[in-house]
Amino acid sequence: MATTPPTRSPELRKDPVTNRWVIFSPARAKRPSDFKSKSPENPNNNSSSCPFCIGNEHQCAPEIFRVPPDPNWKLRFIENLYPALSRKLDHPNGQNDDSSSELSGLGRVVPGFGFHDVVIETPVHSVQLSDLDPSEIGDVLIAYKRRIEQIKQFDSIQYIQVFKNHGASAGASMSHSHSQMLSLPIVPPSVSTRLNSMKEHFNQTGKCSLCQVQSKDLLINETSHFFSIAPYASSFPFEIWIIPRDHSSHFDELENKKAVDLGGLLKLILKKMALQLNNPPFNFMIHTSPIQVTDSELPYSHWFLQIIPQLTGVGGFELGSGCYINPVFPHDAAKILRELNVPI
Amino acid sequence: MATTPPTRSPELRKDPVTNRWVIFSPARAKRPSDFKSKSPENPNNNSSSCPFCIGNEHQCAPEIFRVPPDPNWKLRFIENLYPALSRKLDHPNGQNDDSSSELSGLGRVVPGFGFHDVVIETPVHSVQLSDLDPSEIGDVLIAYKRRIEQIKQFDSIQYIQVFKNHGASAGASMSHSHSQMLSLPIVPPSVSTRLNSMKEHFNQTGKCSLCQVQSKDLLINETSHFFSIAPYASSFPFEIWIIPRDHSSHFDELENKKAVDLGGLLKLILKKMALQLNNPPFNFMIHTSPIQVTDSELPYSHWFLQIIPQLTGVGGFELGSGCYINPVFPHDAAKILRELNVPI
Which residues cross the membrane (chains A, B) (predicted)? Predict the structure, then answer.
């Protein structure tokens, strides 16, 4: 019969990258290995009415590019049919920083110019991102990079957020595997906070906090060019970061060869997460640097990919305080995922 | 036949209180008046197994106090059976600010000393907070205040977060009407950000941003001592703030007479929200000041109560950037709620 391990006392940890306080509260938890999604994503094979399926391209918003550029595409970059920002608005010819934005008396306002794109990651409805080969996932990552290089030409775009919502409760309105890119005329507050926090660490230690972060206890898997960890102050149970080994400020510096390596690690991690946590809905986000950075910011700016499985909800405490309560210590989550064997 | 109003262009607004950027994106929305909860809270009358019901007190964690102090109580303050923080840990005799917390090499750590309490707002399972009389809701607010005054005696507690989760998808694990109080050995990041933002506004204008905020377009309802608005840069559709008219830094300065007035306005707003939005799950949070504030911070520190109905989910964009996408402009939300008549 399994015995319950002795309960650790709760503690608060502050992440040196996100600058966020997290309450680790194991008394609220079942055993870490018992965490499972209560709303697993079921594969949906009904593709007849899905505009993202091959053959239904005419039901979609305009295409930006496809790979390869012929009818038998493997991935497509398209406009979002319901964009959060408008690519048709006049955009100021320069930066919309606080000094140039309009102050309405009630707060600052910036016109909603920007790009909201969708990446259809596969032509086949029943295929998920983690079903693709490492090189095919690499192609998706390279497509992000190609689109970022196009958008960087617009002076008024300051930050590009790449993200994936998998599963309805993680925010996905379409079940066909896709990710999104939202190009913003501002630098979002989380990005400023992250860079300030990494700068502070750099000023104190002379080192980049993500170059320094690797710890055996927190390590899940590693490859030639990347390593994955459960971060020291994970906001969510089984939160995972994939970090490039070599210091790099911007995701779009990713070389093609390294994209395949990253594709392989992302596939492994997503497979492990699905197996261990009962195919949970999840989000991933690429945390990169603002398009414009100064030379002095480069030594502490290091991009990474964050994966959050949706296992626990968010309530009034988190909304009010910005602190999170995590019932699973990251070394426990890392050990479980590290020791898990998955057939690839 | 109803016609669709002309679509406004998207815009980004930065809130002068929360310092958060919000994308207003009406192109994604149905008409503001068509917003309804898809997962309304159904009253659950099965009280036989509910530990919060009168008569089942022995199933609960220890009681802190009850009002009135006899078997026929109307509300009870109890310990949370699964506390996020421990009241039994040794606590440092002073402030756990960054300078005194331990730096582990991976990030800062503070022992998880604190209090996690529950307020059972009514002895009757089927009664919701908005069903109570204004004076009974006032009693709940006065109970918060009484408990805050007890906890302030602990030097190492720096901030007290009062919040309510109503409905499972808003984080409530119990359907019996209750709220919670989490007393923390740190000042949470959202609180520091809010105070810095209000300080900046004060330095620029010489005025408190919440004393100044009242705008006819954003007003929902007002009473002698409070007013309710849809805030200028609402992060969520139909988000509502209730603000004391008189400048006040801390919630626990609330006088008994004003508590009844606030109880009446809170009741009205919750009734309107339930009627207009199909009884949505919701959270409310009291945003107050840290226990220790300096005299120089008082002129711009102004507490308020924030109500967030759960109508739209959060996805990778919000998790990654800290920006929110709101499909409803606050003047539209305010107008709908202002003009709604509810039987009280």
Answer: none
